[in-house]
Amino acid sequence: MGPLLVLWLAVFLSGTWAVDRGNFKTCDQSAFCKRQRALKPGQSPYRALLETLELTNTKLTLQLINDNNKVRLLLELYRLQGNMTRVKINELKPLKPRFEVPDVLINDPPTEPLSLLSQDENGVVLSLGADSQWLIVSAKPFRLDIMEGREVLLSLNSRGLLAFEHLRIRKDTISYKIKNKVYSAWENIKWVFSRLPKSSQVDPEGAEKKEETDAANEPAEGEVCVCVCTAKEDGMWEETFKSHTDNKPNGPSSISLDFSLPGVEHVYGIPEHADSLKLKTTDGGDPYRLFNLDVFQYELFNPMALYGAIPVMLSHSAQRTMGIFWLNAAETWVDISSNTAGKTVFGQMLDYVQGSSETPQTDVRWISESGIIDVFIMLGPTPTDVFSQYASLTGTQAFPPLSALAYHQCRWNYNDQEDVAAVDQGFDEHDIPYDFIWLDIEHTDGKRYFTWDPHKFPQPKDMLQGLVDKRRKMVTIVDPHIKVDSSYKIHNEIRSKGFYVKNKDGGDYEGWCWPGNSGYPDFTNPEMRAWWASMFAYDQYEGSMENMYTWNDMNEPSVFNGPEVTMHKDALHGNWENRDLHNLYGLYVQMATAEGLIERSGGVERPFVLTRAFFAGSQRYGAVWTGDNTAEWEHLKISIPMCLSLGLVGVSFCGADVGGFFKSPSTELLVRWYQTGAYQPFFRAHAHLDTPRREPWLFGPENTALIREAVRQRYALLPYWYQLFYHAHHSGQPVMRPLWVEYPQDTATFSMDDQFLLGEDLLVHPVTEEGGRGVTAYLPGKGEATALFCVLQVWFDVHTFQKHNGAQNLYIPVTISSIPVFQRGGSIIPRKARVRRSSSCMEHDPYTLFVALSPKRFAQGELYIDDGHTFNFDKQKQFIHRRLSFANKALSSRNLAPGSQFITPSWIEKIVILGASKPSKATLKTPDGKENLLEFEFDASMSVLTLRKPGVNAGVDWTVVLQ
Amino acid sequence: MDFNLAGVHWLSDLLLCTQPLPVPTIPTERQFYEENKPFTCLDGSSTIPFDRVNDDYCDCRDGSDEPGTAACPNGSFHCTNAGFRPTFIPSSRINDGICDCCDTTDEYNSGATCQNTCREMGRKERESLQIMAEITKEGFLLKQQLIHEAKRGQEDKQGKLTELQGSKKGLEEKVEALRTVKETAEDPEKEAKERHLKAWEEQKELIRMEKDKTRMAEAFLELDDDADGYVSVAELQSHLELDPDSDGSLSETETQGLLGGADKVDTSTFETVWSGIKDKYLSEVSQGQSEPPAPVETPQEEESRDFVSDHDSDHYPEDYAGEEDVEDDEEDDHEEEEEEEEKVPPTVQTPEKREDDEVSMPPYDTETQSLIDAAQKARDDFDEAERALREVDDQMKNLEKEIGFDFGPSAEFAYLYSQCYELSTSEYIYRLCPFNRVSQKPKFGGSETNLGLWGQWAGPEDNLYSVMKYDHGQGCWQGPNRSTTVKLTCGKETVVTSTSEPSRCEYLMEFTTPAVCQEPASLDEVLHGHTEL
């Protein structure tokens, strides 16, 4: 414990209760970002060599030349199925291969043919297939414009910020230098040589490339020597941050490209940042950074990097939604500027009145440290289209076991088996449902994952069986840092198989983490992943059982004594540096773990794995959470945009630690957080080791009741959650959505991130102000295309059934008892009103249907049912998927998936119709031709019609006719 | 089998997917569920046909129409649990696949296979109740004893206090009397000492004068180079040290001035001259060597005694008043060191002085010495009496504190006072010293951690003396100060049975003591009060 404690103190005493910014780089402190950002627009040295153009069935290739250094690049253009364009730029003849991100795309994206429309010496025009879309390639300077009709949708390199640092030999040769300037730089040259790798000195190609200089830092002729002198400062071959030196044997390799989005004022995405939903311009500050880091006590509202990185940005205007997917796993910075950002509302109005307004435009620039340019332009045009397009590239959200959508109880740490039993008992005593109890790092034998502390958890199977008996489950933590300890089986095997990440000198890379000195398995190696997965087999992971799932933390990876608390960039994963694939590490950890959980069940059971670090594609493997937040109101608030941003780029299964990880929440904050978390996808309470206990019943009977009610609301709504996740899995549509996704023409919604939609039917406005007595919710809907039969959208308060008109800001007084939630008029939501102690206990319970009528007396919804935990829904089509619709005074259930089959004992218990009028009678018709009169109650004050006990099975056709 | 209400089909045939099964309801409310008569919800909110009772649909707002199904969110289900204790469970636990009622009646349609464990549980319950009852019984007896002892102890203490109060009074008088004696003895002592000192001063003066005369004579002889019995200007002029204006030369006029204006002086006149020059005059024999200054006449004995007594007072027992903080002790030590350093020079000088000061004060005469001895004895007696008084005061304070403690309604917890109880775990030794502190010491080296100091009784209102709270222990990093909650349960022995740290730096200790044992109901009452047999 000694050294670890010292380390712990060293790492964590370094600041007060806020992030220590000094531990993390700014763009200026990251050599390539500084070099790239110094580049000024409008001076692109790149020219397309049109004579090299080749067009095949699948792609167009074209060489680009940098007129300053004559280095040639190869451009590949693809028209992808589903209205996407892929632009790939690599060196034509790189010194050695540059890294191309594997394992993120689910397949080689299917292409569609491009056709050449016209060509002259200035460029070519290509047809992008349907919708009169064109792609214009301009030769000098090189640029790409994607047009629809006469409208430019998006331009590449329109600002001339394409910059491709080609791989080079460290070739500051004596003759070269001296010729240019006999210079006192002799010492510098000697210094340079003393550091030259032996191999590069004899490379013949290097000597030839005379004019070669850094693309991003083009020095004038005659000043080449300055280049040598400043080579160290530029950090091209080495850079030092704090006490860490990053050796760069491959030299500079960064890439950059700019994108212009005419007509766009709103861009979103590129998580993970603790910032607003609408991305801000970065002029005068740092760019948004994408570099997976373990940031201790992160700060809100800034572009600093956090645990995960998804290099996907969405642009949105009332006309169109598009996406840019920058497939690069190296450290990446994203600059955003806008020509309207600085303008006041008055200025904008003035422009409008005078008709002198230039088109609003957002310019974006991506900068990555290595790899190639591989960018997917998703052309929408609707938000739904963009989600589908992105899903077709990287896959969809894993369909979680139903229980994973229920409530999770976590704490660092539940002390021992007795503690687990007592907490479990506490939930029953206080009649609060929960599905999962979690064990953090202290459950292990000295932070050796896959083991148990022999004193605290001597009988893990007994403990797990205790949970099985309550139809509940457990999650244990398995982190990717492995204690270097020759008596630890996992370590020995990884070491003997050579599976550890290597340091630059070829030895096993070691760093400090929870167990002390640790190795880091090379998860980029498929053999390593296969071995790791096999460790989750019941006979390997001793004490594990079917109801035990996994949590991958610290997988950025976190290295306490590493640069920026992570792995050295010159560490080696096979032939690749961590620099090339850093942001992929966490994805691979979760991938291998999820695979392990699938394998242990013989491929039958769906896995559940939570990860902290992630990348594009991580949605396929489970859930993410927003890391180590703090028990403060602002952190409750930020949980909304953080999860919304993730949802936009594929990761629907997102949540924030309920209550806040660091510090201790006030009772009011805790209650409000439960109420909010109950309506966010991943619903888990978690707390730091040093905080007082905060199980829901520790704050007096009144607060226990409030928390119980919040959790019960979650459980009642589980059928709807499950259905939303089925859709997310099926089509890539986010579960938790910003309002603009459903109301894309309503500009009032574009920056909104204090409320959100679940699916399209529930609108949630959490209370995130201390002592909040009311909130102003925006109820959207002016009768748009989504509400086909509606004149005006209406919304029903789910607690009171009060009806409100859409397209208004509505002030709603609130008490501590609940937060405002509205059901859209025109929707049908299934619930289970019988909340039990776990979701499994509710499996066969009957459904209550909440039919919220639109003003035109129409409503539509779905019902999805399967076994809740296996892949049989997919492999054997064992599920029920039904269309519920209300029209012409009749509510009916019809099969949406004729090829599927599943038998459920669940039945329809009750139908509640909101916005109804009183019928004279209600008749239930079943497929066997029987007709039964249903009893009903009508509440005239709220226009609520309740149909008593239809009693039909949930899986069959039926109709209820109101007369 | 009390729930077998003849002829009542508790589940209507309307209930889907179930076989009709008898479902128990609450015996006392059974009369409300009358077959084939409309049922009025127990809250009176509505009346429904009887076939809607237990039809797996919730009609009553209070859930009373579904005592046997899970249909009502706010319903509850009555497990008769024949052989064990009857109980209510939330109706959400009916048919949820988990056996809650030991008689299995909650899982009549879930497929769960439940065993009727009521008899077994009843047996175990009775056994443990029996054991508990025995413990309680014995514990309660012990408690009576404790109360008795506490009472006696309290009386003893009260008696002791009274006794001490008495002796305190006596001591106070004694102190006053001895103060008078001391002061009375100190006056003649002071006079005698002063007398002795004065005599010694006079004697010293005589000696000094004689010395001076000798020196004068020697000087005269020395100066009177021509041995004519006169010291002339010329003879004196060689003594440059006598130069009044210190200009390096002794002029004739200046010399004449020294000689009182005369050219030469004889022995008798020289006496006058001598008094003017003796301070500067350097004997020709010792010329060039500096003569030490006249000794400072301080009675050496006095000084050293003062020094010793000063030093002594630092350690004088009156300064000790219970334990002092370690930190303070350290400071004291430090100061002492400094003081001693300061005191070093005089002790070093002393021998020099002694060399010089050939003549020391003679011992006191017998009479004076006896006066001093008498006074010293009076002082010692006085100090002794004062110390005794302080001791009594301290004892009284401690007693008053102990008497003032809340040792429970009948002082049954008094026996825990000034005791400590330990529990050894795999890593630590925990130590509970009731009404004082809780601490934790690592078994394998390391210093003790304070887990809290006695705070207060912290049980619920109706059972205040069931929980002790110790707080303001050692601080935790980024956390609260450590605190410990001690839960007291009835036991024959006084022992710490378990410790845990449910939350960081908040400890929980289980402690058994007869002092919390309640008067046992008779065993029969215990058993019959809680079970249905």
Automatic annotation (TrEMBL), chain A:
This is Neutral alpha-glucosidase AB. It catalyses: N(4)-(alpha-D-Glc-(1->3)-alpha-D-Man-(1->2)-alpha-D-Man-(1->2)-alpha-D-Man-(1->3)-[alpha-D-Man-(1->2)-alpha-D-Man-(1->3)-[alpha-D-Man-(1->2)-alpha-D-Man-(1->6)]-alpha-D-Man-(1->6)]-beta-D-Man-(1->4)-beta-D-GlcNAc-(1->4)-beta-D-GlcNAc)-L-asparaginyl-[protein] + H2O = N(4)-(alpha-D-Man-(1->2)-alpha-D-Man-(1->2)-alpha-D-Man-(1->3)-[alpha-D-Man-(1->2)-alpha-D-Man-(1->3)-[alpha-D-Man-(1->2)-alpha-D-Man-(1->6)]-alpha-D-Man-(1->6)]-beta-D-Man-(1->4)-beta-D-GlcNAc-(1->4)-beta-D-GlcNAc)-L-asparaginyl-[protein] (N-glucan mannose isomer 9A1,2,3B1,2,3) + beta-D-glucose; N(4)-(alpha-D-Glc-(1->3)-alpha-D-Glc-(1->3)-alpha-D-Man-(1->2)-alpha-D-Man-(1->2)-alpha-D-Man-(1->3)-[alpha-D-Man-(1->2)-alpha-D-Man-(1->3)-[alpha-D-Man-(1->2)-alpha-D-Man-(1->6)]-alpha-D-Man-(1->6)]-beta-D-Man-(1->4)-beta-D-GlcNAc-(1->4)-beta-D-GlcNAc)-L-asparaginyl-[protein] + H2O = N(4)-(alpha-D-Glc-(1->3)-alpha-D-Man-(1->2)-alpha-D-Man-(1->2)-alpha-D-Man-(1->3)-[alpha-D-Man-(1->2)-alpha-D-Man-(1->3)-[alpha-D-Man-(1->2)-alpha-D-Man-(1->6)]-alpha-D-Man-(1->6)]-beta-D-Man-(1->4)-beta-D-GlcNAc-(1->4)-beta-D-GlcNAc)-L-asparaginyl-[protein] + beta-D-glucose. PANTHER family: ALPHA-GLUCOSIDASE, NEUTRAL ALPHA-GLUCOSIDASE AB. Belongs to the glycosyl hydrolase 31 family. Residues 76-335 form the Glycoside hydrolase family 31 N-terminal domain. Its EC number is 3.2.1.207. It holds the Pfam family Glyco_hydro_31_2nd. Its main location: endoplasmic reticulum. Pathway: Glycan metabolism; N-glycan metabolism. Residues 732-829 form the Glycosyl hydrolase family 31 C-terminal domain.
From TrEMBL, chain B:
Residues 320-342 have a biased composition (Acidic residues). InterPro entries: EF-hand-dom_pair, EF_Hand_1_Ca_BS, EF_hand_dom, Gtb1-like, Man6P_isomerase_rcpt-bd_dom_sf, MRH_dom, PRKCSH, PRKCSH_N. One of its GO terms (molecular function) is calcium ion binding. Residues 418-519 form the MRH domain. Residues 1-20 form the signal peptide. GO terms for cellular component: glucosidase II complex. GO terms for biological process: liver development; N-glycan processing. PROSITE patterns: EF_HAND_1, EF_HAND_2, MRH. Residues 211-246 form the EF-hand domain. Residues 241-263, 284-364 are annotated as: Disordered. This is Glucosidase 2 subunit beta. It comes from Oncorhynchus mykiss (Rainbow trout).
